[in-house]
Amino acid sequence: MIPVLLILIPLLAGLATFFIKNEKIVRLWSLGVSLITLVVSIIGLSVNDGSSYLSFHGEWMQTIGSSFSVKLDGMGQLLCLLNAIAYPLVILATWKNTYKKSNNFFALMILAQAGMMGVFLATDALLFYFFWELALIPMYFLCSQWGGEKRIAVTFKFFIYTFIGSLFMLIGILYIYSHTPDHSFSLESFYSTVLSKKDQTIAFWLVFVAFAIKMPIFPLHTWQPDTYEQAPTATTMILSGVMVKMGIFGMLRWLFPVLPIASYQWADFITSAALIGVIYASLIAIKQNDLKRLIAYSSIAHIGLMCAAAFAQNTSSLQGLMIQMFNHGINIIGLWIVVDLIEKQFGTRKISELGGIAQKAPALAILLVIVALANIALPLTNAFPGEFLMFNGIFSSKTNYYLWFTVMAGMGIILGAVYTLNMIRKVFYGNTNELTSNTKDIKWKEKLVLGIIVVIIFCFGIYPQLLLNETSDVVKTILDKFEIFRFTIQK
Amino acid sequence: MNLFLLLIVIFPLAGFLVNGLGRNFLGKRFIAFNACGQILASFVFSIIAFLTVKENGGQVINYFDFINVGSLKIPFEFQIDQLSSIFLLIITGVGFLIHVYSTGYMKEESHEHYGRYFSYLNLFVFSMLMLVLGGNFVIMFIGWEGVGLCSYLLIGFWFKKQEYNKAANKAFIMNRIGDLAFLIAIFYLIARVGSVSFSEIFSAASLAKLQATDATIITLLLFVGATGKSAQIPLYTWLPDAMAGPTPVSALIHAATMVTAGIYMIARSNLLYNLAPVTMDIVAYVGLATALLAATIALKQNDIKKVLAYSTVSQLGFMFLALGCGAYTAAVFHVMTHAFFKALLFLGSGSVIHAMGGKQDIRNMGGLSKKLKITFLTFVIGCIAIAGIPPFSGFFSKDAILLSAFEKNPVLYGIALFTALLTAFYMFRLLFITFSGKFRGTQEQEHHVHESPVSMTIPLIILALLSIIGGFVGIPEVFMHGGDQLGEFLSPVIKQHGEHTVSHSTEYMLMGLSSGLVIAMIIFAWFKFRNYQRKEATGFGKVLENKWYVDEMYDMIIVNPLNKFGGFLKSVIEKSVIDDLVNGVGRLVNYGSRQMRLLQSGQVGNYVLLMVVSMVLIFAIQFFLRK
Amino acid sequence: MPINYYIFLSIALFTIGIVGVLTRRNAIIIFMCIELMLNAVNLLLVAFSKMHYLKSAAVNATAGADGQIFVFFIMVVAAAEVSVGLAIIVMMYRNIHSVDVNFLNRLKH
Asked: What ipTM does this complex have?
């Protein structure tokens, strides 16, 4: 029942939001709805695994073997929680931002949440695809209606890019579907389908393209900095905090266990691309002058590392990846909040025009430094256990190039420190200039939001086992599939 | 003992939280009291821990599972044993003195920055304690990065000056390079041994599992990690720049404690290093090279703190030499004595800087001995200690290192001795230029010069006393049987390697030689610098003054190319190649449809022609390709 | 008469028709050429029908006249086409005072 609630609450509430006219009520309503969703997802987290409350099966399109079946497992719990935490934070942090036709804005935001929830919960391939698109379309309207100056061109690119990916995925899903023994879209029959090596390769690339674009993996990333720059900040937070995780999630749920041979076979190739992307994005981030673009490239670098870890395909890397998906979402939302505060106050995001903010706004500076350091995985912050495990996973993966991969990923860590610290130095330290000499420090509402993020950062930094326990079963399921197929390959 | 160890760590953390959160409304007096009190409490508990260890030996305490994934278990555990208890004493003891000193030194800061300063300092002590108490490499790594963070925060404490912030960034990033190697070493250990806990890795069973090449690679990687934190070639250039921080910070972090973390780590892993003779050689050579290089640079520096910074790099090189020669105890011994006399020297220089109103150029000082009596006296003691004149503490520890070098290879000994002579020379150059002769600054400054307040001089006096007597815990065998109490105490952690191969008479001779030469060097320095007149360095001196141009070289070889490459990627590859490729696909579709559009000319004749041509083609294909 | 003669004549007529349609711009002449092509096909249908008539009739009494029936169909369709086509041409002449098809490219824009 809980997974259905997680989808239905935002879906119905989102549709209802279209009809609320008063702007203030819209905000309160959205905040309330997102809080309810958060409560439900926390309840979902506390229910024992295997409980009947965590799954739901309803008939949908019986004739073609598709059903409305959803399930909340460890990985889903984590990502639904991220999705549910993200919304109240984002709504609170952007409380002061005004939108024309705010009811439509919030309605679309909440609908996107419903879509993402569905993606994280669906155990039916067609349903998964349905929600995947449901999450994408509101994002398109959000960016194209409320975005920056170049929004039309940029959103067009974003939409076409991701949509082409989605279509390939649909073909891939149908391809696998046509090989299922009982012609069904359900996760179980997908998992039990055995495809030949050649078929797996075809299906793998068809489906992977969608995920690779969504994450995004170098060199398919160029939509991302533009979109993050042009989208309204609240949308950007959701896009980078939650939505990019859909790509990684999709790989873990729909790609690896279904097509283990191809995923294993192409691992080296994709890992190389992802890690080149890490270094590439980090180097570009060093030279960025625009805060939003800097964070966008930093996000590309982090996601590249996560993709590499996913393809390392062992317990350590996948466990690290799971908690890193959650923690990266939290951290990057924190960074966006700070950027939004800066942009609102000074009307610019250019690093070269800022400086010395720490003198006038110490609270903002301290909170940013904590979030930024968490983003570069300092120990005792939440990103450290995840990155540690992912690195360890990459290092102990079965590929021949594990050492190179580790060193390349490590370069990303060093360069990450370079661009983060340079950004802090140029924006927050030094002397104030004309623009920043009248800086005002943040108010309690922003302090509260960033404070919550900081609490989460330290909480999961000091005791990561809390999250690791949730996902250990899922990791085992994924890896078991690999083991079985590796066994059959050897035979 | 359980809660006990945790308390040692929690006191500084509490200090950090209270001072950090309350810096805006707490009074300066409370902040100072809180910061020092927490460290003092930690120190008292450390003494008790030390005594317990002395009585009952070490133990490992597991608090909770930090990470527990599949077969990989990383508990949050502390290990208290002989080695860590000594470090505990050094960190909290010297740390406490420096906290007290700071209350005087930082008095002029506004109370908000005062609170910030002490909270950082407490956080540093917390991280450093985590580092030495950590019962496995991951907990150690937490402290390891934590001290790097505090170092970053404190170097850039006066964040209005971008120079300082750049130095802070440099420190953090260079440390990160080392940290990466450290991390990879941990992964290697996980892959080969399956554990990160010291108690498991250093057990005979695990060590037997390791092949020689594995041991070499792991130890080398750990050593690279150590070069970052402990400022060795090639990652040493951040340490002199780190002098941008407040002077007590330089004393605590960049001389007495943090930079010795690398030595602690290698001493901790001594069993691993014993398996890798190749690494040992490399450690010894790198240490010696660093010692020599830094000593030559120190000869020509004119900033009082820079001289001390290079001296620190050089002394750390000595410690690594000792480690490389297998004399782990000697290295730890030198860490301890060095903590005393280098903290003393830094605090003394802080006192001088305080008196000079923030100026650090020794060319504008001189004749300060009359006005700063206590500072002068304690500084002299520090110089004698670092030069290694018996019976001051530096003599014993340095002698132990020189002896171990002699045992390994007389050539190493020769170079090390030469470096030791350089040390004596530049330290006394610093002493004489600063304190003797005539005052060379402005009248105003001369008027301003005054002795520092009690809160600053008392730590100086205590550290001076420790510098004098600190060496008596490790008196060599030749003087007194059973005099090497430190070595004996550490023996459960660091196995003493059998009998000395050097005969007593040779040992006496070596000691005499080094002491005699050092004294000769000091006298030489006295004649050369007692009446210092400023003159520009020329020729080779200029190269030394500019630190062999190493920073410039790094900029040229690494920093600038990377920067340029980043710019190239941003403006050329990203914009013109990848994005154009993506947009190109779109443009191709656009172009294609525009071309197709031309076919729809509206001319009926064209349509018919097309129709006919395609009909003919279809027939032709049907006709010729039908099987 | 051998069937070849019919075939060659039909091909010749058809080709003349095609060439006419392709090269002429006058709508009426194009129309006539289309008629020519249709009649070329008719001729062929009739010829083949005659050729196969006896053989088919031997098998099945009602079969064999299909080709000739087809021709009637074509003639009916052609007649309908001519009536519509000529009407269009008349309208065209009224509007643009010409029957040149090259002026009929308004749809392009």
From this structure: 0.91
